Amino acid sequence: MASYLDRIGAGAVLADPEVLDFDWMPPELVGRDPVQRELAAKFSTLAHHEGAGRAVITGPVGSGKTVLADTFCRDIQRHLAGRRNVRSVKVNCRNASTSMRVVQRILHLLDPGHPDRGLSMGELLLSLRRLLRREASHLIVVLDEVDHMLRRSGDDLLYQLLRIDEDQEGKGTMSLILISQEQVLDVLETAVISRMGASNHIKIQPYSVEGLEAIALQRAELGLVPGTWTPEIIRLIAEKAGLTGDARRAIELLNAAVERCEFRQDGHNEPYIIVEDIHEPSNTSIATSGSNLETIDDLNTHAMLVLLAMCRRLTNQETMTTGDVEQLYAVVCEEYDVKMKSHTTVWKYLKDFETRQLTVSRVATIGGGRGRTTHLSMPHFLPKDLASRLEMLLKKQFR
Ligand SMILES: Nc1ncnc2c1ncn2[C@@H]1O[C@H](COP(=O)(O)OP(=O)(O)OP(=O)(O)O)[C@@H](O)[C@H]1O
Ligand SMILES: [Mg+2]
Questions:
Q1: Domains of the chain from N-terminus onward
Q2: pTM of the predicted structure, to 2 decimals
Q3: Is 65 helix (H, G, I), strand (E, B) or coil?
Q4: With a 6 A CB cut-off, is 388 part of the ligand 1 pocket?
């Protein structure tokens, strides 16, 4: 029968596809302790029966804003179980971009049978109040991508939600978390942030390579078959995503690498992710046709020879040391029958490669912190492709 479908469900590398889904909620956030604590601090009174909190979370794309709020709501409910009945609802305002739609969604999430058609804003809010009072629960409302609603309907709803307790005895019915990418909040920032309290504004930074590495590592550990990946491959993926600082990019690259690796499986080769799997499949004429590989065309001859030495090693290995570079450069010089440049010159080339984003370097301490080794990698190019182009360029020069 249809043998092209054989691979579906085979999963030589992928043990749990869900883990590589953007919407999968990790058991815990990695590397975000400081922001998690900052957020928790805004809700320090929540254990108290009249306590409520407010927070505005902003940060660049893929910096973990949504997952920060999601995991907080999940964890706080568990944490307060038995002490206070806490519920949470999240509305993505990109899909519900008017204040009317937002309230309808909140009500629907709390009470799926609630009739919302034909009700005015005032009536909807009244229903919401009644519902919360009846349940005697505290509600955390998360408005994700809130800028969409603010742009369409202004910030009036925020005001209404913040005063939801006003007509009743008691306080602390509702907490509010607003989330927005920082670039889009600017126009509305002053009004909204002052309403929510400037001290409740939590600004998230983009992820560093180390942060992305930890996130990709978590997904690999929980979603892939053991032995099909190495920490070095995960590091390379993190370095490739490093320019953006976007966690989604790191997960996407891991997912793509897994797919390519699965695709290569034919029952004969070892199922594990290799350097080639983390790059876009190359087209065969890449050495001659136009592509961003051209960035190397103006390198001088010896820089090309050093880079070629690196490419050859990095085709099969994720990283190499500067010592490896010099050794392999010597071999390449012999091959092209030229005299090697000095150590200092090679070092200068390596710096230049890094500036051009051809390579990435990381200094690691070894042997209990006594020695320091520089690890070089090539996350943005497929070393094999770069090598072909270099060989073509060098051929012209040595003709
Ligand atoms: N610290 C982390 N630990 C584990 N997973 C993370 C972490 N940060 C982000 N992620 C994962 O990365 C992906 C992107 O994160 P998230 O959706 O929270 O970003 P965002 O800042 O809301 O992005 P956007 O601005 O596009 O809405 C999600 O799949 C999320 O689970
Ligand atoms: Mg988000």
A1: 3-17+207-278 (1.10.8.60), 31-203 (3.40.50.300), 284-397 (1.10.10.10)
A2: 0.87
A3: helix
A4: no
